[in-house]
Amino acid sequence: MQNTDVNLSNAKKKFEHKKAATEQQVLIAGGGHVGLSFALLLAHHGIASTLLEKNSYPTISPNDDSNRSHYLDSRNTALSRRTVQIYQEIGLWDELQSHACRIDAVQISEQGSFGRAQLNKAEERVESFGQVMENAWLGRKLLLAAQQEPLITLIDNASVSAVTQQADGVTLSFNYYGEEEHEQQLQASVLVACDGRDSTVRQLLNIGTTIYDYQQTAIVGVVETDKPHAHVAIERFSPAGPLAVLPLTDPEGDGNDDYQNGYRRSVVWVCPKGEENKYLEDDAHFLATLQQAFGERAGTFVAAGRRGAYPLTRVLADKQVADRCVIMGNAAHTLHPVAGQGFNLCMRDAHVLAQMMSAQVLKGEDIGDTQLLKRYEKARLSDQKRVIRFCDAVVHGFTHPNPAIKLARNVALVAFDKLPNIKPLVANYAMGLKS
Ligand SMILES: Cc1cc2nc3c(=O)[nH]c(=O)nc-3n(C[C@H](O)[C@H](O)[C@H](O)COP(=O)(O)OP(=O)(O)OC[C@H]3O[C@@H](n4cnc5c(N)ncnc54)[C@H](O)[C@@H]3O)c2cc1C
Fold it and tell me: In sequence order, what are the beta bridge partners of 29?
């Protein structure tokens, strides 16, 4: 009897929570990977949202996988263990994992130096250090899940043009570029801006930024090697710039095991600004330079797909909350990609904010309350600062030409490899399990 009462009261609570949540709508500006993930996290807590995206979304049918990237043509993201856990929590990982490639080991070394270090999943007693996923696949599955979720309203072809903050809510104006072009307005309790590095919302709110130009460009592409990747991620520091070579699934394999055992690898190579063209145009030159910088640890690089170039700047919003508004994702912090931390950090932010909003709804309180938003910003600052410091330490520490600094970093790599207590700590940070 008692159990039934508890079940009934839980069901009632859930229903009331859902009702209260749908009444307090959240507006999300920007439907990239962070905006879509945040909307899905909110929906997991029963909170309704409306998401506006400037670009046009493709029509996706659930059983059509034909939009997968070509064998050597894709952009990829290394998802940390924590990000994988978050997608598991909202029931999406089963959909995503068929095209995710496990990272079982991480090797770090520097060209022409003695220092090297290795992390192995068996030694660290973890299932994996993370998973590498094609951006196109991730985006497609997030979009499909959002389209199928009744608590999410998606409006594409909609570009934010004005934000008006009131005491009890926020009004968002946007230009709609559908069949008929016109301006529209929406109101909600809170606006979350996920509209990228050059965020319009951030500018409309007069929130300044601190920008640092690394004077570097990331060359991104997919290569094939004659040796299987064996699930090893390799970080290599060369005078030409830091290089990350990550294992990828094989899209031409038939079944999960074949997908996992591939010869495809994702390359992120950071070069000085202005030198990108020589890596973009000629495949043979690119492969030869890559081989020289990388050595034989991945075997021979035999083929390369189309490369893309991304100028690297760090952009940090001066603040991440204003009355009834939150700045999130790349709009809040755009980082150097060398350590593969940017998206993973955004996911931890999104997870925490969705949880705090859910708790607020359960208390029957205002989801856009200034104190709540300030508590969110405070709760996230230490993790964000740590990741920003870590990325910059990797970029500057490993590219400094001074011989004394070079010696120090090699000694540090050897120490890292040998000292028993450091590896689990660093592994936990890299996996996003410690903040
Ligand atoms: C080369 C490279 C490699 C990377 N690798 C990794 C990695 O391995 N691991 C990792 O964790 N991170 C990685 N990152 C970082 C990661 O890509 C970003 O953190 C992530 O893409 C940020 O997503 P976002 O949704 O915040 O921004 P965006 O992807 O920029 O999305 C913003 C969205 O907002 C929309 N928008 C813009 N303006 C408006 C407007 N006015 N109105 C409406 N909509 C608007 C845009 O159309 C877009 O869809 C990498 C980055 C780079 C450059």
Answer: 52, 193
